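assembly run, all chains below
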Amino acid sequence: MRQIKVDLIEERVAQAVIDANTVLPKDVHGALQTARERETHPAARRFLQIMLENADIACRDRMALCQDCGMVVAHVKLGQEVQLIGGSLETAINRGISTGYQRGYLRKSVVRDPLARINTGDNTPAIVHISLVAGDVLQITLMPKGAGSENMGQLAMLKPSAGVEGVKEFILQVVRAAAGNPCPPVIVGVGIGGNMEKAALLAKHALLREVGRPNESPDLAELETEMLTRINASGIGVMGIGGNNTALAVNIETYPTHIACLPVAVNLGCHSTRRIKLEF
Ligand code: SF4
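ok done. output:
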């Protein structure tokens, strides 16, 4: 049994939330550069240039990429042969977030009660998803998720007869309804299958996949390319001002489902899609 002290998790999470909020992932940065090169709309091209300059300044001066430093979603892969020592995993993650958000001067955006709306003051709690896996690995991927893009996500429980055309139409409808609100160019995370909550989780997981890495299934990879082309032809464009770059990627994840179900969820990531992976 491999032993890992939760103190170490807390310490590394504290630094990781600062890094995640100040350093745009390489793949997202690269995709913005490519978008700038192929953008035909002058104002949209200028916007893309500003987004890249913003990312470079944030990285250089260790300042937040965006004023919305998000609510942290933590995806944990925990090996069955790992023993955590000294306390609870979720407490360690939350303590790390609390320290990191204070130390990094990151905006605290979490309210304790969704109706009373009093800020918790330290950006906790995180939303933690834990998958128990074989072996002795511990992997934590942290995703500070801003509300502008999160608010534009949607879920549909389609009838199986809607088929792939129904799925395509729903994805387009969500992107059209979102327009400039999720700060495009967006990454479109799509979850198809499972049940209601599984589809939503798949869509979130889809945002963890690197931009430019297609689904391993050739059919789904083809669907991703088709949807990206159609979304970029929608004319929404960078920050909703037009042009040919509404999305940087469409990432689709699927799961088996019930014979009478066809759930589809769309979760959008903005041009400041932030994520960082910790391996222990
Ligand atoms: S959607 Fe993204 S870029 Fe826009 S305000 Fe929210 S975190 Fe910032």
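The longest strand covers residues 247-257.

The longest helix spans residues 42-61.

not gonna interpret more than that til we talk
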